[in-house]
Amino acid sequence: MTPLRCLMGFVMLLAVQLADAGPKIERWQTPSGARVLFVESHSLPILDVQVDFAAGTAREAEGKAGSAALTHALLDLGVPGMDETQIASRLADLGAKLSGGVDMDRASVALRTLSMVDKRGPALDLLRQILAQPLFPNDAFERERARTVAALKEALTRPDAIASKAFWAATYGAHPYARQATPESVGALERSDLIDFHARNYCAQRATIAIVGDLSRAEAEVLAADLSLAMPAGKPAEALAEPVLPSGGERRIAHPAAQAHLLLGLPTIRRGDPEFFPLLVGNYSLGGGGFVSRLMKEVRDKRGLAYSVQSYFHPLGQLGPFQIGMQTKKEQADEALRVTREVLATFLGQGPSEAELLAAKQNLIGSFPLRLDSNRKILENVALIGFYDLPLDYLDRYQENIERVTVERVRAAFSRVLRPGQMVTVVVGGE
Amino acid sequence: MTMRYARMIPLLLILALSGPAVAETYEHRLANGLRVIVKEDRRAPTAVHMVWYRVGSMDETNGSTGVAHVLEHMMFKGTPSVGPGEFNRRVAAAGGRDNAFTSRDYTAYFQQVPKERLPEMMQLEADRMRHLTLDEREFSQEIRVVMEERRLRTEDQPQALLFERLSAMAFQSHPYRAPIIGWMSDLESMTVADARHWYERWYAPNNAYVIVVGDVEHQAVFRLAEQHYGQLPARESGSTKPQVEPAQAGLRRLVVKAPAELPIVMMAYKVPVIRDLERDIDPYALEMLSAVLAGHDAARLSRNLVRQQRLAVDAAASYDSTSRGPGLFYLYGSPSEGKTRAEFEAGMRAELARVQNDGVAADELARAKAQLIAAQIYKLDSMFAQAMEIGQLESVGIAHAQHRRMIDKLQAVTAEQVQGVARKYFVDDVLTVGELEPQPLPRSPRPRSPFVGRH
User: Fold this and answer.
1) What number of H helices and E strands is found in chain B?
2) Considering the entire predicted model, what is its pTM?
3) Which of B307, B308, B446 to mutate to test the interface with A (most CBs of A within 10 A)?
């Protein structure tokens, strides 16, 4: 294909693709200060509600590592008038499902329920109690603490978990993002630590409520107001300090596994940073684009060194990490590391080729509809926009922002945030 | 309580199936035997395209285990008109995502794309259905990747390792005894000729079916399929000998040692699977038993073993009523600190005995059915999940249109039938128990070198 034809094809593709808009998102604030985002969709009798609190591990008190996850785990294990069995049975009777998780910034609780009034009503009543009135019963607390300790001890035998913990510790040093629960820190937690953590962080001012599905705007307003009224108003979360960048270095940890686990990276950008787009587009060519990235070609296709190798940027409220990760037979860990560093150095020096840039844009722009083709996916996106206070037209302008990226912008953004001298390497296992 | 649910279930079904997003399913058979199944779902301008081959690891023979999966990898390594790696590049350029998976029963390939890119996907899949290159050099690289995959997913994963060895003991004759990814020794000795033989034997339009779910019009999809797949000739396709597993007569037990902290106990009982959708009763009752034991956080195993007795850190059950080969009902989990594997196993057995002796309560069964119905509705939120459901049923010989009947049959299961299957099948003579005996790491992990700055 001649370059001209290739370019023409691309222009035509854009003419079609850029017309895609995101779903219509409505945003408001409840009287008690919770932010609400709503997408109305009546095509299925389903309602999804996700509540995100600024209650991630970065909000744990000094010496209380593990309290964020344990607080989250205890939420649905007892509310006034119902014990854990009654709560889980009621949800199952309704066909409703609770899910969620905790990361550095966020504690999320998501409810999926059928949208008929006799289903969603009781399910939402339960959600409200779970968020605002958890009892943290002592026996459930002791049991879940013991289970968490057991799971942490198990994780400490796994090379992937060991590598991940070592990576965060080495890249974030004294910053709250470096905080890792250990069997000892969780074993030392008291029930009162959870009650304190909940009281401080699970409040309306720190909550974002994302609602997607079979509900009217008026009903969504009532839903959000009810949810947030049940919570204490509280105070907005304070901003986290900016992490101090590491000074590079390599950490090797012995392990008997057949494969070595390799991680390389450093803190890079915040959520909402406009350079996210050049970094996203560039990373597609480097190691994000599934089977077509440079790392995949060099490490897997040409040399058969690994089953999977990838890189990504994970923006957070504060500078989140860039990370390259792979696993390889331990005897060839050093070769894989050498190849990876060469690929990275070349990419930092030259940026993507024009052809790579084009391929990255084609995929990232063309696949935009796939990011939003279910209520579940819309919910994930809307919750993210709400929690990180991204512009309401973030999805509408997503393709346009990608289209504007140039090779020069990729190179400039990469050289700003990826300083090889500050990059940390962790190898678990290996020779 | 129970009555309320009994009335509500048909109502829910009607709501689910008559909403504005009704997903209609259509089928067409090409002259070469390829079946095309289309489900229209117009909620978003995307489509999922899948090609399923009726061949999986259970069709392999000794010494060549893993070849079905290796061939799956090689399917991305080029044809005369689409070079190595080009398949992935073209899907990516179309804004698509693609991958493939190999199971014991089938091998399937899929792409998720903006709907207007569907024709290209069909062109690509039709091309590699007949014209795969199978280059020797590509093979020698890719087999190394597969060995890394085995290390990653099995050798360094204690639970996967235990499952692999348990399967090899529970089945002595049936090919379900071999792992899907293959034994390492078989991978080491595999050649490109093995992969080519597999491809020639099984990859033909008459041994495949295509599934498209998305914002498409079924007649247009049938025309596209005719255009791209229609030109491929039907060919004689392989067959696999029955290799019926002899009846087990006596408990089997094995221990696997691996670096870990928590022990694992996995109990596998031989049970039937659906062979006659209308006449069978037991597989449906077993599905409901699985839901009563482990379908939600307050289901019996979690409530009794984890929460009340604190005997287990985790306790779960798993059963799939649809498969080409014989069925197993699994009970597994990890004992709490201070509890032994034997105590965990005794706790599991006590839970089975309670069902055998006292049956299950009406509200437990109603709860399992309510969840089942809700799950059917939630599935409609994912085109991929809808395509998978069709594909998996068809892979075991159940027409996708029969799915509604299966749900009806599940809804009709009684408490007596659940108790009946618990008594009939959960006996030691058909039980295999696998235990993971944790081994300490050679000294608990600590830095081999101090953390040093590098400037």
Assistant:
1) 16, 11
2) 0.93
3) B307
